[in-house]
Specification:
about 10% helix, RNA-binding, RNA binding, globular, Immunoglobulin-like, three-stranded antiparallel β-sheet, single chain, 7 strands, mainly beta, four-stranded antiparallel β-sheet
């Protein structure tokens, strides 16, 4: 498999459990910066991918998150 795909190919699925969930993409590199944000309302789903530009995703609000590592919820 392509080595770059091994590093950057991970996807996450985010399902909003409330209105106004914010998803923020953070950049790679020497200085981590915000580079993109999305708002989701209850029931909306977003599929995001880690890329050569996105190293982390910050989520504000109650969500269900599905990754290759499993399913998580933060609504406890």
């Amino acid at each position: 498999m392509n080595e770059k795909w091994d590093i950057y190919g991970d996807y996450v699925t985010v399902k909003a459990l409330e209105n106004g969930v914010t998803i923020i993409g953070l950049t790679r590199g020497k200085d981590t910066r915000f580079h993109h944000s999305e708002k989701l309302d209850k029931g909306e789903i977003m599929i995001a991918q880690f890329t050569e530009h996105t190293s982390a995703i910050k989520i504000r609000g109650k969500v269900e998150l599905l990754t290759k590592h499993g399913r998580m919820r933060n609504d406890d």
